Amino acid sequence: MVHIDANDPSVARQAKAWLDACLEEHDECRRLHWSGVNPTRLIRILDGERVQIVKLADSLNVRYVALSYCWGDLNDEERTLVDRGNTWSASEERRLSPFSISEFPKTIVDAIKFTRDVGIEYIWIDAVCILRDESPNPDKTHELGLMHTYYGNALFTLSLSSTTKATEGFLRPRNAWRYMESSCSLNGYEIISIDTTLDDAREHSPLAGRAWTLQEELLSPKRIYWFAQGMYWSCAQAQWIEGVKEPKFRPTPRVAEINLVMSLEENFLLACRKDRAEVVRTEWLRSVESYAKRDIGRSVDRFAAISGIAARYHDSFQGLDQYVAGLWRSGLPEHLGWRVVSLADRDGCDDVLKSIPSWSWAALPMKTMIWTHPKRFSSIYEPSTNDLELKLDSLPVQNPKWHADEAVHQGSLIKSIKVKGRLRPFWSDTSTLKPWKEVFVINKQGTEVLSDDFSVDDSVHAIHTSDGRMVVTGNRKDEVYGHLDFVQDIERAFSGSLEVNCLQLSSSSMLLLEQCGDMIYRRVGVSRNFWPGFFARFDLVEVTL
Predict the structure, then answer these.
(1) To the nearest whole number, what is the mean pLDDT of the chain?
(2) CA distance 474 to 457
(3) Are residues 391 and 507 both part of a single domain?
(4) pLDDT at 379 (0 to 100)
(5) Which residues, other chains included, contact 278 with Cβ-Cβ below 8 Å and sequence gap of 6+?
C-alpha cells in the first residue's frame, strides 16, 4: 500500500531497502558507473535544516544522490525564489560554511530532506552546485560538460516526475493507488489489479518534455522515480513499484537480447557495457528520436544537452568512431536518413539552429518529432555497393588523446562534410506538376491508391500540401516517394523555385537536396522508397553538404 503521507518514515525506508538490495545483490549494476570521479561541488546535509557546499573532487569515492527535476516556467515571484536558491560567484564563499535550507525553493528543500531520510549525506543539484552567473562563466561551461559523469557516478538519481517547476515541492499528500494488491477468480481465471508501468508513467511525466533530463535518465545506473501516486525503482536488474509486494526482477539479458527486452532508459548503459556495436547504434537513434521532440530553454545548449550520451557512445567504441554534428561517421549513410513525422516550421529556428548543418536533425526546431531508425519506415535500410562515401579529409582530425567529452564537443562544431555519391534530379524536366488529388484517390477501404485515370506512362510529380509528401511517376516504373522537412518548402516546390535533387544514401534511401552553390547542397527532405535502377544512369560525383 502506498502511504498517503510522503513524509512518513516508511517511504524513505522503502527507498533505502531498494537501494540496499541493489547494492548487495546486483553485480551488473555495479559495473555501469562512469568513473570514480566526484563532482566539483556537492551539498553536504548537516541536519534537518542546515547544509553546506563542499569541494571533494580530490577525495575518494563519495556516495551522493543526483537530482533530476524541472525548473519550469516561472513567474517573477517564483523566479526571485529560485534565483535566491542558486549559487552565484558572490555567494559561493559564504555557502562553504553551514547555511539554512530555507534559502532554497521547495523542490530542492524536499529533495534534501528525502536524501537525508534515506541515509545519504551528500546530494548534487545543478542549480546549487554550478555557479549560475551569466556569460562569460567558465565554471558553468566546464560543469555542463561534466554533468553526464555526475549522474553516471551517483549512488542513484532522484527523478522528480510529479512537479512541473522548482517551487512546487514533492513531499505532499498522495491520493492515488491507495489499495492493497488483490486478486479474485472468475470462471476459472485469476484476475489481479495491474499498476501503471514505469514506461507508461514516465512517458507522461513532465521530465519527458525536457531535453536535459534524457541523458540524466540514460546515464544513471540506478533511479528512483517520484510520481504523485508513488515511487518506482529502476536499475539494470530490477524494477520495483511502491506498494506492490512482489518485485519485478529483470534477469540480466544476454547481449543478443538486450534490445528486445529493455526500454531505452535501461538499455543504453547495458549495450555500451556489453560492447554490442549494433545495439549501441540502435540505442543512439532511439535516443535522438526521444531528444528531438523535447524542449530546451536555450538553443545554444542543443548539442550540450545530449553530449553526455554521445560521450558514452564514443567511449563504448574506444574512440574509433567520430561524432559528426549529431550523427556518427561509421553509420553516416543510415544516420542521414532521418525523417520528420510532421512538417517543421522554419520560423521556429533561430540563428543558432540555422547555423547547424541542414543534414543534422539538430537543425530542426525544438519539439520536432522525427523517425531515425529504418524500422520506422516502410523500407528497411539495406547497405549496398552504392552507399555514400564520406570524404574523410573534409572532417577535422580527431586527436587520439582527446577524452570522449572533448571529441564530442569538437564533433558538434562541424558545419559541412564532403561526400561522394550518385546525384540526380527528383523529377525530370519533362515531368508535369499535378494536384495530389488527381494522382491519388481514396478507395472503399479508406486507403490512398493511385487513381485509375492516371497512366503509368505519364511523367508526373505531385506534392501534398498538408504533410509535405512528394511523388514522382512515369516510365512504367513504381512511384518514387519523398518527404519535405519544412512547410515553407511546399510553396517553393509548387512555384518552381525549389529544384529538388536526390543523393543516394543506400539501395533504399536518398537525401533530397537543394543546390545553393557550386556542387554545394543543403538538405530539404528524404526518401525511403525508390526502384533499383533509379540512379543507374548517373555517375558518382563529389558534393559538399
Answers:
(1) 87
(2) 5
(3) yes
(4) 47
(5) none
